[in-house]
Structures are given as structure tokens and as C-alpha cells.
Amino acid sequence: MERKLIALDLDGTTLNAKTQISAKTKSVLTKAKEAGHIVSIVTGRPNRMATSFYHELKLTGPMINFNGALGYIPGKNWEHEYQATFPKKITFDILANKEKWGIKVIAAEGKNLLLSDVADNTVDGFFLANLTQEHVLNKQNLTTDPTAMTMLVDNQNKASIVQKLNEHFGHKITVGVWGGPNPVLELAPKNINKAYGVDFLAKTYHIDRRNIIAFGDEHNDEEMLKFAGLGVAMQNGTEHIKQIADDVTALDNDHDGLANYLEKKLHL
């Protein structure tokens, strides 16, 4: 069998509802690596919230974070590392309009960057629950262009905020809207998405697109699933993701859907 690049979304896909990797998933992914396939995490999570899973799966290659905006090998200086950013002026402009637009929390992030304008623990781990002076989002502390911005907004103003962000900054950024219960918006550099990251991995490993298998469950996985030779939606995925995918797992993320699918597909 030809060598495959297996691109894994984390939340709702590789991770179960308790945000854990099951023993079965670990076992199957280990077998896939031993069979010569490449296993890579491709997540919307910042690197700070993904490296523990990277180490748990004993991965050694590059990881893609921030929905394609960062590609790097944890703990290593790697010559091919990249980080896409957008102008920090956009962050300052949004901060200035925060009250007027109905935004509650604004965070700016990068590989070694995490600043937030106010402390908040609404979304577990995504915003800073405690703010020290050096982590406050302001002009003094934000001296480099960010890779991503995350915003907690008023639910009823969500659509109008998205519209304003697109009107003002749409030529430089892409606005993503989280699924799930929290009204969170995510800003990424223009034309950067998970497919960008997977394309980078494929070129790095010299793997043809038809030999890419990608797994996902949410809107931010769409480009990646379309780009991959085999884009697989999780049983627990959104209806839209299931419709655009090439295939759907028989089981959900709480019943080893990904592991069972890969085991059969790759004869592990």
C-alpha cells in the first residue's frame, strides 16, 4: 500500500467528548505509523493547547495549528517552519471599536504570543482566566503581527460583527464562526485554512494529494476535506461537513469512529 498522509482534526474527531484520546485511537495511530504512514495533527487550536496531544501520540513530524497558519515541529528548530500573520493595526482597530460593536473579549495569539484585553474563563483555556500586566492586549505588549485573533461576542450581535469585520478588514483576514454553544469569532490571515497546512505537509513529505486522508467534523475542516484525496467526516460532524466529505465514519468520536475507519481502510 502506498504511504498515506493522515491529517487529524482534534476536537470532535481525534478527541472524544471528554477531550481525551482513547486507547483504541492511540493503538491504531501507532500501527499506522509503524506501517509507514504519516500521522499529523491539523487543528484550529493554538500550539499551546495541542502539544500535549502531539506528545501523547508520540508524533515526531510537523504539526499544523491555528487552522493552517502555523506549521512547526514542537521543541525543535526546523528550517521549514512557517507562521502566517496579519497586520497588528487590525487588532488595535478592533480594540477601539470593541464597545460599539458588542465584543466582550479580544485575544491575539501566535506561536509564542498570547494577549487578552480582559480576563475570561467562559471558554475553557481559550482566553486567559487571570491577566498579568505583560499579558494585557494593548499597544505596549502587542509588538508583532498576530497569527490569530479570538473574540467572544454578544450572541445577538454576532452577524453584524462578522459583517463589520468583513467590511473593514476582509481584504486581509478571514472571519470564522465557531460551532457549539459559545458565540466566538476567529480571525485568520486571508486565504489561510487547514488545506493550506495539509498542502504544506504533503509537499514536505512528497506525498500526492490522492494519498492524503483527512478527518474532521466542523466548518473549519471543509477546505481540508475537499483538498484531501479522501476527506472523511465524523459521524458526529455537522450535516454540511458530511455532505461535502467523500465518506463518513460509521461511529462517532465517542466510539472510536476515526480509529475503526482507519483500521479497516489501511488494513491495520
TrEMBL record:
Domain of life: Bacteria
Pfam family, one: Hydrolase_3
Record-linked Gene3D superfamilies: 3.30.1240.10, HAD superfamily/HAD-like
Signal peptide range in chain numbering: none
PANTHER family cross-referenced by the UniProt entry: 5-AMINO-6-(5-PHOSPHO-D-RIBITYLAMINO)URACIL PHOSPHATASE YITU (PTHR10000:SF23), PHOSPHOSERINE PHOSPHATASE (PTHR10000)
Protein name from the UniProt record: Cof-type HAD-IIB family hydrolase
Organism: Ligilactobacillus ruminis
